Write the structure tokens for this entry.
Amino acid sequence: MKFNILNMIKGSLGSNNRQFHLRDPEPKSHYDVIIIGGGGHGLAAAYYLAKHHGMTNVAVLEKGDFGSGYVGDNRTIVQANYHLDGNSEFYSHSMKLWQNAKKELNCNVMLKKCGVLNLCYCEEQFDFFARRGNAIIAQGDEAVLMNREMVREQVPQLNFDDARFPIYGGLWQKNAGTASHEALAMGYAFEADQRGVDLIQNCEVTGMIIENGQIKGVDTTRGKIMAGKVGISVAGEAARLRQMAGMNLPIASHMSQIYQTEALKPILDCVVTFGMGPSYINQSDNGGIVLGSGLDFHDLNISGTGLSTLENIAEMGMAMFPAIGRANVQRSWGEIVDLTMDGSPIIDKTHIGGLYLNGGWGHHGFNAMPASGSCFAHLLATERPSEFATKLRLDRFERGYILDEEGKGVPSYRF
């Protein structure tokens, strides 16, 4: 079934022979590859396995409904403002895949190139943004270093009079922006399903079958399913899955919280990040002002929100954008994210034969979905890392080649 006007008209007529978007297959006893996690990364990997590598005896296992986890709660920002070798080429590749996603998947992913502005508040931060901008340009992407007056011209509503956080300048990516929470994941799901991949919902993995250091399959709420290879792509659930496999990984689960105000008239046409804290602000398509926080650095696995975090987010939001001061908060939600010790992801084999890991995305999982799926599929199919993910290996922590993108050092106290 393709999404076009003729099929929409035909479906609206109530035909008894209409096609559903996704099959609802019963699990087979054995697959070549099982991917645990039916979010954006897992579904993208299944799609690329089928399309690029011709592997269709593949199952994606999701404990709930597809798209109901992290991909449905994330911050929707698409950008490629990374400067370290290893991250820079990976996210640049992901940005290019985002640009072509609508055509490739026959699905409107609602990519809006509204631009992303990263604010800086001191001369040292401005110098760092200059280095990052040069790295982005050298990678082949676009970036503009803005001084204070250029920032004022771009977003005049910002607070330029705050003595505590005086805006010094910013780094602008005009081709960055936002996209739909679920559209890309559902596009991958539909195309993978059409190619014969079994997408199995309400199938929670409860254990792993490991014999002599080799994974043989998984135990699930729908029975035992055997496989030649198993890929873990479960975002904030990585800590629980690693315990099933008896692995000790440099990954911890943390909560990130997001708040949205009531609908307002259009006042902000881009995404702005707060240089003095891990926070951002943008206006959604329905008019609500979206305020995002950093991580709650407690190793836990709950996604509730709290008033103390709301107070911190509101304080940062007001420091950036005082015009929202009288807006009412309409809703809030929390997302469980998996964070590595250096804040950069892992796409690699594990020490258990046939078991592969895609995780540690932290804040960056949404804009990484296309490249993540492509690189994870390449690893599962060929046993070799993709050219775009050669430095996202698990053993970099043992070798000392960490990718500390924010330049803060390894935050080992969080683990």
